[in-house]
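[SOLVED] Need 3D model of a three-part complex

Original post:
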Amino acid sequence: MSSYGRQKKKTGGQIAITILLYVIAVIVLLNIAIPLFFGLISMFKNKNEIFTLDFHVFPQVWSTDNFSRLFYLQYTTIGVNFFASFGMTLLVAAIATLLSLFINSIAGYAFARLQFPGKKVLWIIVMATMFIPGITILLTSISVVAAMGMMNTIWVLIVPGLASAYNIFFFRQAYLGFPKDYDEAARVDGCDSIAIYFRIYLPNSATPMVIMGAGTFMGYYNSYLWPTLTIDSNHAQYTQIMTLINRLFNEASTLGYGAVLAAAFISLIPAVVVFAVIQRFIKEGISLTGVK
Amino acid sequence: MKQQRFLFSSFFVLLAALASCTPPDDIVIDSEAEKVEENATTVSMWMMDFEEWENRINISQRKKFNSNLTDGIQLEQTYINKNDFDDLIRSRYESGNVPDIYMVSYGNLYKEIKAGRAIDITQYFSDDSWNDLTDMAKTAVNYGGKYYAYPILMEPSTILAYRKDLLTKYAGADAKTPETWDELLNLCGTIRSALRSAGVKNVYPFSVPTGVACAWGSWGMQQAATGGLAVTDDWTASRITDPGYTKLAELWRDLYGNGYVPLSSGDYTEAVFDVADGKSVMATCGSWSISTVLNQYPDQKDNIGFVPMPTFSGDKSLTTATNGGWCYVISSECKHVEAAAKVIRWLTAEDTAQAVDYFERAHYSKYSPRKSVQAILAQDYQKQNDVPQEWVETINDVAGKAILEPIYDWNISVAVEGLLEEAAMGNDIPTAVKKCDSTVQGLCATAGTNPRL
Amino acid sequence: MAKASLYQSLRNRKTEEKVSGLILIAPAFILLTIFVLVPLILSIYRSFFYYESGPNEAVFAGFQNYIRVFQDESFLRSLANVCIMTLFIVLLQVVGSFFFANILVRMKNKFGVFVRTIIYLPYLFSGIVVACIFTLLTYYNGGVINGILGKMNADPISFTGSTFWAYVAIIVPTIWVGGGYTTLIFYSGLINIPRSLYEAMAVDGASFWNTTFYLVLPSLKNYFVLTIVTLVTGSLQMFEIPMLMTNGQPLNKTMTPVLYLIHARANGNVPQSQIIAASIVIMIVIGAINAVVFCVTNRKEKKR
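Solution:
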């Protein structure tokens, strides 16, 4: 339709519609921006100013009190170093992402390209795990990790979420789209199936790796319930950032809500960085998400 | 690429800017290193993460305990957010690493005993320390002749806080604090119209507990209105059809319907903040609010008053609050019960020094469960005048008449909260009472028997 | 690579594939077994016993836990609540996103690219952080919305005091997070429809609505199914945003099942075993609703 529009001269009605479309788009953008805007400026309001009856959009006094409060968090009863927790969460998410990409991509490759016994049954089992809600296995998963002695270690944060049916499915989709000719050529060169993965599939899977990597990374980084229930306050060094922010939220009346917002926005930095890295891949990623 | 470099560099600039910050005034960096005893038994203890000042008292007591390097015990405390506390305790019972000692409220103690999580500690404390407890404290921790916990403190859950200056401003210089609910409603009406004509928004005459807090914060009011709680003492029948409950629901309807109380308020435990900040003229709050005011709003001290809650009849001998509070239990997973008991003995049960220190630093807003400590506190109080006399009198008056928190199924209290909220939302009260009654009746069937009988 | 050469010696390609295939899926499958299948089986097993966390022994209870779950009014209410919220979220988000995706395909300039990029951003934010930001807006006594209303001399809105506003306080942030992503899914579906089909419709003189109903909707059927199933599964397990925004208020009208179970577990007034049984009921409900979604969309296809 629009291709016709370009050739013909636009009528008044069409121009009105175009303007309307832009107005809607701008409204949507504003809706995304407004909560962030108020959050960002309220970080600089001090404790007495943030929930006050005398409302002002901008702080009367620009204060960095809320940030310095985060720096000295370990001296309060929360007892957790905010930036250490931030760093630990990033570390956990990074390690988990690397391991998860490897484990799931080889499985996806095997399901896409190789014939092995029990493939169909295994595939059904793997796909079925996608439909099990987290809450159903939450309590018993705690028993399982406890029996394995993983409670309060960095492994309880990393290992249980590594294998993901969704990621396996996604990699399989991506690898099904690879031309098979390369496999054959590699086989003629004497490569076996595993070598083919490392020679051909792994080097060529930048797009699925980035897309799934970003998803896995943010999934780990944003997780709240599992880290809260498996790491206790005596192991404050493993406290994950979302657990910490929830604690700050609950203590908001003493800390001041500005400090909660400051913590929340600092915790958004990795999301923005990930966003900057993957934006070129988003479109490709979505068309790969398995809508066929 | 440019964008990324920009992002990273702005991140580092931000970090550098932050690093130059100085700590806010109210953060005290405690540089005193904790002494660590070699080869000592570690006793782990979970504490509720209360307000900063209270935690500081507990931490200093721990440091004092650990400074003794010859007792063979190293005390380790963990402060747990009150919202996560029970959940984490349960997780630990499933996964191991249960703390040796943890805090339980009197209302929840029976649950811990029934599930076998809290052990009988009668033999670990001398008869003297048990006999030192007030009768109410004894009832709170004694089940079937055995003691399962040592009480730390008692605090009445409902008193009325008000701003003296705002009351004068909006209700006239001769305004008195209300003694009956009718007086309160009238007063609220006066304040409300004064607020309206002054064009003040967002300030409310009064506030009552909402949400979960309403389920326990209203126990005292239920007792005053009906002469009992939601079920009969033997837990066999619902008492919701008592006319007192209808009156209470009507009160809730009037308070909300006329806009006397905010439709939603923050955490009940912090209701006094609204009074101190001038967001409400009067508020229902707990006795702990006294120490909150003295610690966080010291300049408002002379401006805030505390009086007992109003009742329907105005009879001053009625119970208007429940005495809530906390006690220490030793968990069933504890491997060195004697060491754990020794810690509790040191903190609260034997020596009076720690307990006296605690209650003084809490500005007498709490009530000691021990007769000996009460006696010392009564003497000490004469010597200092940090806390307004009238506040202490209110606390003593309310606490003296208060009853213990009920230990029946928590869902019964939730059902009553539901009744009050339905009334607040303007739903038909007889229908809501009927619904609540049948819920409570249903819960009675599975409630078991009252172990306190 | 030592392993690789070992299998290289297996001349038979089929045997080699079998062995390699099993090796390659082994890590993922073992992890899924330990951390998903074993806990699931354990959950099912434990739901037939009565126990509480603590030292007491578990007692076999048959279907008693499930019977109690279905007698638990609060839990059933929370299920009903979440179904209503899910219905609104799915309706608003799917219709809104589809509508906005249609706008985006008509924006072929830099601004369009910018919008398409930026709307993805909130999808990366965690529920906790989003709820923290929105609480600033909805806080009753001094939040941004009530602050502005106060300046305009209007009555403040209590976002936890009435069912309607409490729903708003949960549904708006939820859509704020996911709406952009859903829009992009529809967008990628729309640009995949061959232009020749559009042109054919245009030549026939079809209106915008006809094009939408007879061309766009049928071609995007799979996109709709995927979006709805994902949204339904996600929304039924809603937890973080309701916890921080309303925490079930008012009158537990915004209590979600997951939040209810976490509260119940913390309060200790529901035995552990009953919580596990309830969590299995949640799994069955989610499975059933998704099955209905699949059935409905498949039947539509047959009609055409």
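Edit: Chain B has a mean pLDDT of 86.
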